[in-house]
Design brief:
Blueprint (H helix, E strand, L loop, with lengths): L18 E8 L15 E2 L11 E3 L7 E9 L2 E13 L3 H10 L3 E8 L4 E4 L6 E8 L9 E10 L5 E2 L2
Parallel strand pairs: 2-10
Antiparallel strand pairs: 1-3, 1-6, 4-5, 5-9, 6-7, 6-8, 8-9
Length: 162
């Protein structure tokens, strides 16, 4: 991405941040690697192999989380990207699906409340899918699963404008 130096002004208006949708696909379903414009950092096309489409992870609305954390190591700087949320009241068929997902690296599209989309992952490197069975005393009748997608990338994920 090209270097740009300028002041950042406070944006006026109501705060409408937060995720509202997560779509995933195993990275081996991508027909081609995801290319983005170098000068804008925007992806305009994502091609999937024939018969495949993005799968939506519908989770508890207030549980969606997206985190870009800059980190340093001896080999250089990178970003740890994590996407997570809670599945509420899952059953055996959902359990079978997520058991399948954990053996694949995923490419995700995260959509925020302003309808901005970001693509996380590509054909060469995807997010690791994991989950944990979470039980609390606050709602004993419901089983919840914590879903986590995590990976380290050299660059921030590009925006997606189809």
């Amino acid at each position: 991405m090209k270097e740009v130096f300028e002041s950042i002004q406070l944006q006026v208006g109501s705060i409408t941040t937060g995720l509202c949708q997560i779509k995933i696909v195993p990275r081996n379903w991508l027909e081609n690697n995801i290319e983005f414009a170098f000068d804008t950092g925007i992806v305009s096309t994502i091609s999937l192999i024939s018969g495949k489409s993005f799968l939506e992870l519908e989770m508890v609305p207030e549980s969606y989380e997206y985190n870009e954390k800059p980190k340093e190591s001896k080999s250089g700087s990178y970003y740890e990207i994590s996407i997570s949320g809670l599945l509420n009241d899952y059953n055996s068929s959902i359990r079978q699906v997520i058991e399948t997902f954990r053996y694949y690296e995923m490419v995700a599209i995260v959509v925020d409340r302003k309808k901005k989309q970001r693509v996380v992952g590509n054909k060469l490197s995807g997010l690791r899918f994991s989950f944990s069975d979470k039980k609390t005393n606050t709602s004993p009748a419901k089983d919840t699963l914590q879903i986590d997608l995590v990976q380290e990338f050299e660059q921030l994920p590009p925006f997606y404008v189809p």
